[in-house]
Specification:
homodimer, 229 residues, mainly alpha, Arc Repressor Mutant, subunit A, Tetracycline Repressor, domain 2, 2 domains, 10 helices, DNA-binding, HTH-type transcriptional repressor FabR (chains A, B), transcription regulation (chains A, B), HTH_transcr_repressor_FabR (chains A, B), DNA binding (chains A, B), transcription (chains A, B)
DNA sequence: ACTATATGTGCACACTTGTTCACAGACAGC
DNA sequence: GCTGTCTGTGAACAAGTGTGCACATATAGT
């Protein structure tokens, strides 16, 4: 299939009867997909060239401009896609409901499963969160911010620490999510043939999340630290 | 000074009486410095070109090869430099001793001061930790790993949670350090003319660290989670 | 059915990039 | 002091890059 793409270069030839806008979106997605694929092979986004992407997508370089002004614009679109994945993940976890035993382990399991199902999205998110262009960083930060707020609201809804102000809940969630993203990056970097290391990393990850929630249970809304010794 | 560099391009002309090895190391450091400077201006390491670096360093492209085979090799040297900075930070904190009141706030203050004193090192560390080439990622992971172990040992020495196995202490420290690096990245990205936002971020950061240690105090060595409900 | 439009092609251009090679000058050891 | 060695220079090259332009061709609206 990849070879097929490379041989018959004409994107318009592959789907000659699908409506105009539909085909446009198809090649647009092919460009995005190409970028993701290239990134999952060691390359990082800022080092991708426009031509490289179009080549991988099976499209002539100039066709790129029909969809994006810039590589940066493609980057932003990518971030949006990753954000979408994140939100679907949240919905998935919500759907699973609130198990009575070992909530954390359960949620983490869903999370890890999701990470492995969308490795390219998570790698991109983790990698460009601090690395990419300033614009891309900001975009990712926004996405993560949304995620944090949604998660905090979810905790609200299930009545978790309902005595805390939203601010505090979001602080906690942000810590959790940072930990999640770091773990995703670590796990995706692991050689696939090391199930032992994988398990260790996962256990470590679970421990960290558990630790955070242990702290969260003890958190006091407004500790007046200056008078505390 | 930057202009001076660009005008008189000959590096050998600038310091004509300083010993051979010494001058070699000087231009080597200039190359490293150039890379750091370029990175602190939006560029990320993988997008740097060899020529760009030599240009900024005020050296002809071919001179690069006298110091590094590769850009990757320069990257590794950079990581080492960042690791050195991290270790000096740790020594600084150690030197400060163990204040009796509000240890966390105190340590965080030192940390933030350090981050602002070496912004380029911390940006690089945060950014290439997930973004760079696989080799660079691994190198950073090693440095961070050392840091984690040293910090865990320090906690040991001051008798913090001496009942816990080293493994658990390291898990805690790794969580702390992840949070530290994320915070560094966030803070360095902030527009400099927003002291209010800066303060909020710092407070949030302190809260997170505090939360982690709150959890750490409650952590049980071997919670048999399967029998716990 | 005819025409205008939008998507993808092909070619062109000016640049930048990494790397090779012969060369110049400063230093170190005899 | 002479000679060999090492660091930095300069010109050169092939390859890759972003982008502008005129062209094809399938589609949508009349």
């Amino acid at each position: 299939m990849s070879a097929r793409r490379k041989l018959e270069s004409a994107a318009g030839v592959e789907a000659p009867g699908a409506g105009r806008g539909a085909r446009k979106q198809m090649t647009r997605e092919r460009l995005l997909d190409a970028a993701l694929t290239l990134m999952s092979g060691g390359n990082s986004f800022p080092s991708l060239s426009l031509r490289e992407v179009t080549r991988e997508a099976g499209v002539v370089p100039t066709a790129f401009y029909r969809h994006f002004h810039d590589m940066d614009e493609l980057g932003l679109a990518l971030v949006e896609e990753c954000g979408l994945t994140l939100r679907r993940l949240l919905r998935e976890v919500r759907k699973a409901g609130v198990p009575t035993t070992d909530i954390i382990r359960h949620s983490v399991a869903i999370y890890l499963q999701y990470v492995r199902a969308h490795p390219r999205h998570f790698r991109t998110a983790a990698s460009e969160r601090n690395g990419g262009s300033p614009a891309m960083r900001q975009a990712i930060r926004n996405e993560v911010g949304h995620f944090v707020r949604e998660m905090a609201q979810d905790l609200r809804l299930i009545g978790y620490r309902s005595d805390l102000p939203t601010e505090a809940l979001e602080m906690i969630c942000s810590l959790v999510i940072n930990t999640m993203l770091n773990a995703a990056s670590d796990i995706l970097d692991l050689p696939a043939d090391q199930p032992q290391l994988t398990r260790e990393l996962e256990e470590n990850f679970i421990s960290q999340i558990r630790l955070v929630f242990l702290g969260a249970e003890q958190w006091r809304a407004d500790p007046d630290v200056r008078h505390k010794k």
